[in-house]
Fold:
Amino acid sequence: QFVLPLEMTGNSFRSARMESNTRAHAEIGVINASLLSMGLLSDGGAEDWYPAPTNIRRSVQRATALCWERGEDIAKLAIQFSVSNELIASKLVGTANSANIEQNVAWVLE
Structure:
């Protein structure tokens, strides 16, 4: 057994090969260590140090605005996508606010 760190941005696989390998080998487990891409997929956005290129940041800002126009929260969609994705075996969440955890659980249960 081994652990291979894979970078994920916006909960989307960077490599189609990784996805096909995960499907082909049941012993491979993918861990999403940041359901909100370290804040990128949240109302506040990512911190300045976050390594997302400008075009990704702008795309996420447009997607966030579109979500709000439609009465949705991009964080909710990111969490629900990650939890529903069968290729992601484990999901890790961290926050300094317990209300965020309660909200995340409520979104998962919808």
User: Anything to note?
Assistant: The longest strand covers residues 88-91. The two ends are 35 Å apart (CA to CA). The first helix runs from residue 16 to 24. Helices lie at 16-24, 54-69, 74-84, 98-109.
